[in-house]
Amino acid sequence: MAKAEEIGRRREELRSAYRVACEHVSSILLAEDPVGIDPEQHRDEYEPEAGTIVPRLRNCRSVDEVRRMVHEEFVAWFGVVTAGPSEKYQTIARRIWKEVVPGLTQS
Question: Which residue in 19, 26, 52, 86 has the fewest CB atoms around it within 10 Å?
Answer without folding.
Answer: 19
